[in-house]
Amino acid sequence: RVVRTCADEVAVPNTREQAEAARDALAKGVYARVFSWLVEQINGSILRHARQSGLQVNILDIFGFEFFECNSFEQFCINYANERLQSQFNEVVVRLELEEYRRERIGWNVAAFEDNSGCVELIEGRPDGILSLLDEEGRVPRGCDEGFVAKVRELQSPYLSCPKLARSAFCVRHYAGEVTYTAAGFLDKNKDVLRPDVIALVKTCCESPFLHRLFASDGDGGPADDDPATPR
User: Fold this and answer.
1) In the 3-class helix/strand/coil scheme, how is 157-192 assigned residue by residue?
2) Which of 37, 85, 157, 172, CA to CA, is 20 to 30 A from 104?
3) Alpha-carbon torsion, ordered 81, 83, 87, 88, to 10 deg
4) pTM to 2 decimals?
5) Are 152 and 133 in contact (CB under 8 A)?
6) pLDDT band, residue 25 (cuts 50/70/90)
7) Where is the Myosin motor domain (predicted)?
């Protein structure tokens, strides 16, 4: 890997862990770009037909709720997306419809539904939501997963519980059920930034024109090694 300073660039050998992290980040980067390209192609094709016929079909395809024996950052993100969609459903299909009934004075029986806005706030709230605390710990010098979990454990929410024996874990009560997350690797996975030298390697050594197009908008590859990683 190449470490950039103000006046020079220094080649530093990767450790095995760093090499594996760079490999995984590249694989995820290729997957994300191919997925975005595929969606653009499908949307372009559908849009042309929709303009001709005046009809269109919209499809939302996401992962289902996940709950494994060991749940990490990937499951946390997937379940957060499902939690957010459930909140949107509650808002559009339930709350707004009830407001419409009230305005038009239509008789109705209140249907029981679980309001998950508290769980959404626990995850995405600022400045004390789980994601905000994860970003904050990623910016702290020598930030670590243990420091992140310690901050999460200080939160007060009926949607959060913390196992007494598993100090590196926390539990979130989602609308679909309670899930225990193991925080090991959360910080690294949240950063997951492609290094400039990895993107340069793709552009200079890869013979696939398709991959070149996928990485064409990346410039020199984003933040340098000595820059603070931008969590995402």
Assistant:
1) CCCEECCCCCCCEEEEEECCEEEEEECCCHHHHHHC
2) 85
3) 20
4) 0.69
5) yes
6) confident
7) 1-232
Which pair of tokens denotes residue 107?
Answer: 């008789």
Determine the 3-state secondary structure of 10 from DSSP: strand
26-63, pLDDT tens digit by residue?
Answer: 888 899 899 989 988 888 887 776 666 666 666 777 77
Per-residue pLDDT, averaged over 3-32, amounts to 81
Structural domains of the chain ordered from first start:
2-218 (1.20.58.530)
Between CA 75 and CA 126, with CA 88 as vertex, the angle to 5 degrees is 65
Of 34-48, 74-88, 93-107, the least confident: 93-107
Least Cα distance to 43 among 61, 63, 64 occurs for: 61
Q: The tokens of 232 are what?
A: 């995402």
Q: Which two tokens stand for residue 90?
A: 């509650």
- Measured in degrees and rounded to the nearest 5, phi and psi for residue 71 equal -110, 125
Locus of tokens 């004390």: 128
In contact, 45 and 37? CB cutoff 8 Å: no
For residue 163 the two structure tokens come to 């196992």
Answer whether 123's CB lies under 8 Å from 172's CB.
yes
Cα–Cα distances in angstroms (integers) from residue 62 to residues 79, 131, 199, in the given order = 10, 20, 28
Task: Specify whether the CB–CB gap between 166 and 152 falls below 8 A.
Answer: no
Model confidence pLDDT, tens digit, residues 159-197: 999 998 888 999 999 999 999 999 998 998 887 677 778
| Helix, strand or coil, per DSSP, at residue 4 | strand
